[in-house]
Amino acid sequence: MFKKIIILAALALVPCFLFAAQFTEIEDLDGHDIGVQTAVLYEELIQDRVPHSTFQYYTMPNDMILALQSGKVDAYLIEQVSYGVQKKNHPDLAVLEEPAGYINATCIIGENERQGRLLAELNQFIADSRENGMLDELYDYWIADFDPVNDTCDVGGFTGENGTIAVAVEGGYEPFSFISNGHISGFDVDFICRFARAYGYTPEFYEVPFEAIAPGVESGKYDIGMNIVVSEERNETGTLSDVYYTTPIMLVVQGEAEGGLSFFEQLAESFNKTFIRENRWVLFLQGAGVTLMITVTSILAGTVLGFVVYLICRRFGRAANSVTNFFLWLIHGMPTVLLLMILYYIVFGSSSLSGTWVSVVGFSLMFACSMIDMLRVGCNAIGRGQLEASTAMGYSDNQSFFRIILPQAAQHFLPIYRNEVVTLIKETSVVGYIAVLDLTKISDLVRSRTYEAFFPLIVTAVMYFILTAVLTRIVTAIEHAIDPKRRKTDKILRGVKQEE
Amino acid sequence: MIEIRHLRKVFDDDTIPLKDIDITINDGDVISIIGPSGTGKSTLLRCINMLCEPTSGSIIVDGQDITQKGCNLNEIRKKMGMVFQSFNLFGHLTIIENIMNPQITLLGRSRQEAYDKAMYLLQQVGLASKVFNYPDELSGGQQQRVAIARTLAMDPDIILFDEPTSALDPSMIGEVQSVIKMLAKSGRTMMIVTHEMDFARKISNRILFMYDGYIYEEGTPRQIFEHPQKEMTKRFIQRLSSLTYRISSSDFDIEAMNEELTAYGEKLLIEAERLSKLTLAFEEICMNNIVNDSENPDVLVKVEYSEKLDILTMLVCYKGEKFDVYSSASKLFLDLLAEPTTEVRQDDIKDDPLGYEHMISMRFRWVEE
Fold first, then answer.
1. Residues B202, B218: one domain?
2. Which of A225-239, A360-374, B125-139 has the lowest mean pLDDT?
3. A396–B92 C-beta distance less than 8 A
């Protein structure tokens, strides 16, 4: 515990050592690093004016605050409205007077049989709303006068007579889409709910990172993706609706820091924001539950699958082995995120399998591959001699494997197995990419609301530590329980009367 | 009874360890298979219980051809014990379980029956105190004795020994051999692949000499070891009982020769001191005198040991100027010549096909003090 406090203290001190740089014009930033959110393409607005700058890409808008405070970037690009929210939580932020430009946001419509109809309906709705002032009303409510605590939207009252529409939103992107009191909320959400009510749909929301929205929609996984910034490239690849809002993009720089709260007051405040407010601890528990569920199910399924495939390989020799090797090569050779996205958008693209189950499938496959490798290594370590001895005695192939080889191989591969379990728990943190609300994703979403940088990160890390510790203890216990050399003498000679 | 007819085995790499093997193994036979390395001895043994699948030919066990598909091999194997060079005990099981578990799993014996049998056998091989040890806690000789007990526990009709002492330290060979000897005396059918000729001679009633994938010569131990009929058998038996060196320069590698002599002595249980006497004589006669005095030395040295007479002999044939051993300048060597256990003879050779002109023969006897 003491160590954790030291780490927290060290992290909290970091901003104090930084000094504010002086920028007033956009051109002043030339040659400095500038942060921008991945896939929003705001950098195109100022690229010509700061030709020597390097752009750093961040997945979450709030990560850019951290980057600015820790000096990784000297400025970052963000919508005016998001800046407004950030400024409330971080008074030390400042902004250049001149906006970097304006962006127009549209919706991207999925490549499926409903595409034409949805596009027409959505464009009609945008036109109507613009005419009757509803869009301005929404803009004022969510963007101009945004109140992050009290603003809510009506996410009910759907008739669903024309079916369900799957809507991809960022989910950690105030004020457009964010989790408030455990529910999805925001400008984008409100807008789509109104549209759904008007045209008889029931919307289902999926929280997806920005860079995954367009691919997901184009593969037909989602019907509508929100908040797509218009650019020529985007127009070529997707079907976009008309513009539903326009907002200025600002350049945020480090301003004057103000005296803050004491370390412990900050800690209490962080705890309050991260866990107590809006009952966010429930979200964390749910996220941990999802992570645990995916991990444990994948481990069990992967172990069984790997075992079965290994037995098949043993029985059917070379052909089965080369097929297996091909799949091992294929699955092991791919980053986890890619494997999951391929499964989610392509392999199960047209099925209704949820992201959670697709993750289970993906991680089961990966774990099965590791399992096969472990079994191979473990069984090879036993050598041919004992197998020959048992065969020569008249043990069948299966008897030899289960009674002689496996009990010894297990002691060789279980330590590796334990490491693989730990690796798997940590690897599951990428499932956010396919709209699964696991522990990491929940922590991201909460961070996007609280504008807290360190506290949720550390807390999430601690939760992963606990999960890891529990699961490795279990594997170690199994390892000890089935270790033949830990048996007691009376167990070895059970059912036998010994002569003196 | 096991009949092997026209057995042939071709490996994947096209080597042919067994070309055409024909033998009949009668109940009660103790057969030793000897021969140079790589002539298919182990392969033959492994084919008999189908650990190694023959390419063609038949193996008929009690009237049933076990090379045919559909034959229940596991049942046949239960009646054939096998003892391996590397023991192959089950590493995760205690000694007692190594012997009990196969009986329980394969023969359906009760745990009590299996235990009683295991304990009886462990006592027979002298390891009753190692019941709860694991194989890796035992010496090689002990492991091999457990392996033999494990095989015996299955009450096999025949036991196949695949070089049972080759992986053992010389000091442990004896304990394993005496267990096998005990089995041979009890009338069990056994087949043994071995490089221990003396052992083979003492325990077998039949010797198979294998050469180049065939059973080259077969007979009783007396026939094979004392009166081999065929050329390769003669050479093999000869080579075993003697060492030959040819020296044509003063660069001759004495170290290598000494190593070989030591191994030879260990194998035949020749006293180290007697060997060192021989080495002393060799160095003085050959290296210090004959080779030293000649510009183009050509010396043939043959070391031989007769177990029956317990005499170690060194024969030196050479060309060039004659050397009289008594003219040696070495006090040590002259003392050796004077010992009553040492005999020496010097002669000229006439009409030798290789052109050697003189010979010196030395015999070393041994008397326990």
1. yes
2. A225-239
3. no
Distance CA A291, CA A285 (A): 10
Tell me, yes or no, whether B232 and B249 share the same domain. Answer: no
Mean pLDDT of all residues belonging to chain A: 85
Percent of chain A at pLDDT > 90 equals 32
Residue B123 touches chain A, beta carbons under 8 Å? no
Which range, of A170-174, A264-268, A450-454, averages the lowest pLDDT? A450-454
The answer as to whether B369 is a domain residue is no
What distance in Å separates residue B30's CA from the closest CA in chain A?
Answer: 20
Q: What is the pLDDT of residue A15?
A: 46
Are residues B161 and B250 both part of a single domain? no
How many domains does one find in chain B? Answer: 2
pLDDT tens digits along A84-95: 778 877 878 888
Helix or strand run (H / E) with residue A37: strand A33-37
Looking at chain B from residue 149 to 208, which residues have their Cβ under 8 Å from any Cβ of chain A? 151, 154
CATH of the domain at B256: 3.30.565.10
Binned at pLDDT 50, 70 and 90, residue A231 comes out as low
Note whether B249 and B232 are same-domain residues.
no
Would you call A188 exposed, middle or buried from its count of C-beta atoms within 10 A (0-12, 13-18, 19+)?
Answer: buried
Quote the pLDDT of residue B248: 85
Q: What is the DSSP string of A185-212?
A: ESHHHHHHHHHHHHHT-EEEEEE--HHH
Which chain A residue's Cα is nearest to B114?
A496
- This model of the complex carries an ipTM of 0.70
Going by CATH, does the domain composed of A280-483 fall within 1.10.3720.10? yes
Q: How far apart, in whole angstroms, are the C-alpha atoms of residue B47 and residue B80?
A: 12
Same domain, B107 and B179: yes
% of chain B with per-residue pLDDT over 90: 48
Whether residues B107 and B225 fall in one domain:
yes
d(CA B93, CA A45): 73
- CATH number of the CATH domain containing B210: 3.40.50.300
Q: For residue A390, which residues of chain B lie inside 8 Å, CB to CB?
A: 90, 102
Residue of B nearest to A385 (CA): B88
Residue B159 distance to chain A (closest CA, Å) = 11
Say whether both B269 and B335 belong to one domain. Answer: yes
**Which structural domain, as residue segments, surrounds residue B75?**
2-236
Nearest CA to CA, how far is B45 from chain A (Å)? 11
The predicted pLDDT at position B297 comes to 86
| B91 shares contact with chain A (CB less than 8 Å) | yes
Query: B223 vs A267, which has greater pLDDT?
Result: B223
Chain A nearest CA to B214, separation (Å): 24
Nearest to B200 by CA among B161, B168, B170, B232: B161
Q: Which CATH architecture has domain A23-258?
A: 3-Layer(aba) Sandwich (3.40)
Read off the pTM.
Answer: 0.69
Coarse DSSP helix, strand, coil percentages of chain A, rounded to the nearest 5 percent? 60, 15, 25
**Strand pairing report for A54-58 and A33-37:** parallel
